Amino acid sequence: MSTFERIFHAVLFEVLAVSLSILGLIIFTEHNPQTLSGTMIVVASIAMVWNFIFNYIFDRFFPGNREERTMKLRVFFVLLFEAGLLFFTIPVMAYILNVSLIDAFWLDIGVTIFITIYALMFNYAYDNIRAFIIKKRRTELHVGIEY
Prior knowledge:
The protein has four helices and no strands. It is mainly alpha-helical. The longest helix is centred in the C-terminal third of the chain and has 44 residues, at about 100-145.
């Protein structure tokens, strides 16, 4: 993936993740929607930077076609990514929401469980749609070439 595509992937992932997370937190907590929105925007910003760095490093250790990754590797990827993200986001959530680290941990675990499932589905779909588009473009290029 190019740097531009990595940025596109991260931004698309986070926009959808933030929107769905805010909605879930509004439904399941009694915190102010504006505070939750601000919190999730900060968390998403941290996650975007972590996503870019983590994907770059992960791709170095596990090269090859992303659409050919096994489900086992995808689950490993998501769990490792989310564990690293928790390290950075729990203190931030505790501070912004003015809750204890334990309360922030449980809030973040709820978001993390949702995001883990979402990330697995999002990346599977993204990788396969990307492969389809690339294959289609290659086919269109070959069709346009006269032999």
